[in-house]
Amino acid sequence: MREYTTQMDAARKGIITKEMEAAAKKEQMAPEKLRALIAEGKAIIPCNKLHTSIVPNAIGSMLKTKINVNLGTSRDWKDIDMELEKVRDAVNMGAESIMDLSSFGDTQKFRRKLTAECPAMIGTVPIYDAVVYYHKPLKEITSEEWIKIVEMHAQDGVDFMTIHVGINRNTAKRFKDAKRLTNIVSRGGSIIFAWMEMTGEENPFYEHYERILDICREYDVTLSLGDACRPGCLEDASDISQMEELITLAELTRRAWEKDVQVMIEGPGHMPLDQIAANMKIQQTVCKGAPFYVLGPLVTDIAPGYDHITAAIGGAIAAAAGASFLCYVTPAEHLRLPDVNDVKEGIIASKIAAHAADIAKGIKGAKEWDKAMSTARKKLDWEEMFRLSIDPEKARAYRASAKPEKEDTCSMCGNFCAVKNMNRILDGEIVNIYDE
After folding, report:
1. Rounded distance, CA 124 to CA 114, Å?
2. Taking the model in full, what pTM does it have?
3. How far apart are CA 76 and CA 93, in angstroms?
């Protein structure tokens, strides 16, 4: 029998769990150091005790930046086999987390399959599932039924849940008074806001927060405190609704820690470049170093079809400034459910952003990867370059699509290759570019 309830409880008791050992090895960090960070709430290991197929990963600002992949069925796109293909691709490409946002069909069957077979962390948003599960109008769902869905997801083995608990009656009133351009763009936030407006009742996740914590403590589910008021456009970034909700989430973080429940905070959203670092600092300050999980941030509103790029720009800045978990964004964002290729593009963009941030943060092993690639380039060792590439398949395909006349160059430079010519001249050889 376990001597602890959650990873945080174990850490505070001085116990180094097998999950801490495994995660610390990946970080090239002493397990004791990771244990101390978890005890403080500055690092987490989302790891439901019923998710036995998981390969543990730790999340925190001083650790390697992790990425999350959103997927799941919808009314307009309900091919479960395609969603499972996305899961397999995401895991093979190194995504540490899968978030099931299914909003149609047999959601529990899909969720249980994930927690039975998938080695990545599994996250869900119970608010979506309640609407699907109860098959009745939103207004008729009761407070008790909302809470029961949270318990069901915990029993199904999910490692973290987004709970939109920061938007209560007070923050909702402030939101209405503030008059935003794009209102609430969070799906879960809009659902619970509508429910409060129609019923006149308090947000059940806020009102019964202690019960939520008890469920999370029992199964060791990490709370991902949802940002219902995240900005959906640059115009709304860093406004009073976003900030008031963040302050509420900070208080809810403290209450979770009192029960040894692991927590991360969800963040923006759409945000201008010059506001991102400041937002990371504010979150770290008010939430006492709890890991920050950001969607993007998207640094411009004008790039539908290319939002994986706008998000990667913002994500790199955010992670370098203290965010620890990046939710990928695909080229399909704002347009449709992503297909398999969209998922790949989103993962690669997010991985580039995460790695760029890790270099800036001085994460152990990050810069060495780049040095190894540069060494391979200097040697014109193409196979090693492919092996070290963030997307070996694409790199190899690009070279194969335009084969050079000579294998030690590429089709852009040929005999003008600076690397080749510098290697030769420094070795005392004669360089004759045109007649070679």
Report:
1. 11
2. 0.95
3. 27
